[in-house]
Every structure is written in structure tokens, then in C-alpha cells.
Design a protein that fits this description.
Layout lengths: L9 E5 L3 H23 L4 H7 L5 H29 L1 E5 L2 E8 L3 E8 L5 E4 L4 H6 L1 E8 L2 E9 L1 H22 L7
Antiparallel strand pairs: 1-2, 2-3, 3-4, 5-6, 6-7
Helix pairs in contact: 1-3
Length: 181
């Protein structure tokens, strides 16, 4: 469960770019089609000879292909849940990094925006530039974290730095020092 501070407001919720999930899905679709194409081309002899079955190889191949599709469906579900449950929540005081690992494990980290020292945008490929997504590396001194495959990294960098500026201005006006102490 994500714990918010009292009075904390969510500024933006950021997820990975949909192209990342699309590429994973495309890979799984190709992996699903390849065994069927191989069977149509006559590459089923290796499965038959491996199991020493000569009666009706069609049912063995159909069963193995069904198991293969079931495995790919499970991998698709894991990729889909990872895509939808990974998020970075930017509030007016913190960045909350929600990272989903598999189906049942989740890690949540909280990073204060006023502690950010530097934000870098990784060198992007031509595909990343054309689709306007990339990776931010946020350095907090000893600690750092990445916001990978996010939409519009330049705008997000400006948003985070703007929130940091607001926090630092608020801290300057609320903290007063007595002279001589």
C-alpha cells in the first residue's frame, strides 16, 4: 500500500511508454506462430523421434503446441501486469517508485524531491527520439534510480525540477534563523 503524507498532492502518474509493452507482445506473438509454421514446413519429425511415438504424432504435436501457447499466455499476463503495475507517482514533495516483480512481489521506494541533485536523460536511439520516450537517471547523492522507457522525458525532467524549485522556495521562506546562533 502506498503511504502518502498528510496534505500531499499527486502532480502526475507516469508509466512506461506503450511501445515497450507492444514490442514484448510482438515477440510473444512471433514465438506463438513459429512452431505452427515449423509444423507446416515438416519439422515435426524431431518431436516424434524424441518421444519414439509412431502411432499418431498429430495429437502429441497438438498437445505440445497447446502447452507452448499456455506458457506464452502466462508470460503475456506477467508482462501485462508488470506494464500496468509499474508506476512513478510524482507528488508535490516526493517521487514514489512502484516496481512490480512478477505477479506477487512489489517494491515501493520513496524519494524526496528536495534531495535531487541531478537529472540526466540517457542517450536515446532514433526509435526512442521518434516515439518521444527515453530513460531518466535521477541522482540523489548516494542514491539514484532510473525512470525507464517513459513518455516525454524532457517534459518530465522540467516538471520534477519545477516541483523541486517550489519546495526549495517554500523551505527558504518558512525557515528563519536568529542572528548570532
Amino acid at each position: 500500500m502506498i503511504a502518502y503524507d498528510k496534505g500531499e498532492k499527486i502532480v502526475k502518474i507516469v508509466r512506461r511508454h506503450s511501445l515497450a509493452f507492444t514490442l514484448e507482445t510482438l515477440f510473444l506473438i512471433i514465438a506463438a506462430i513459429l512452431p505452427y509454421v515449423a509444423y507446416l514446413k515438416g519439422f515435426d519429425a524431431t518431436v516424434i523421434s524424441f518421444f519414439n511415438i509412431s502411432n499418431n504424432p498429430f495429437f502429441l504435436n497438438a498437445a505440445l503446441y497447446t502447452l507452448w501457447l499456455l506458457l506464452l499466455w502466462i508470460l503475456f499476463f506477467i508482462a501485462w501486469s508488470d506494464f500496468w503495475l509499474d508506476a512513478w507517482i510524482i507528488t508535490d514533495g516526493r517521487i514514489i517508485d512502484v516496481e512490480q516483480y512478477g505477479i506477487f512481489r512489489r517494491r515501493i521506494n520513496y524519494y524526496r524531491i528536495d534531495k535531487i541533485q541531478k537529472i540526466n536523460i540517457f542517450d536515446r536511439t532514433k526509435l526512442e527520439k521518434s516515439m518521444n520516450y527515453g530513460t531518466l537517471l535521477i541522482n540523489l547523492g548516494e542514491d539514484s534510480f532510473k525512470m525507464e522507457e517513459i513518455k516525454e522525458p524532457e517534459n518530465l525532467q522540467e516538471l520534477i525540477l519545477g516541483e523541486q524549485k517550489k519546495i526549495l522556495n517554500r523551505l527558504k521562506t518558512t525557515v528563519t534563523f536568529e542572528e548570532g546562533k
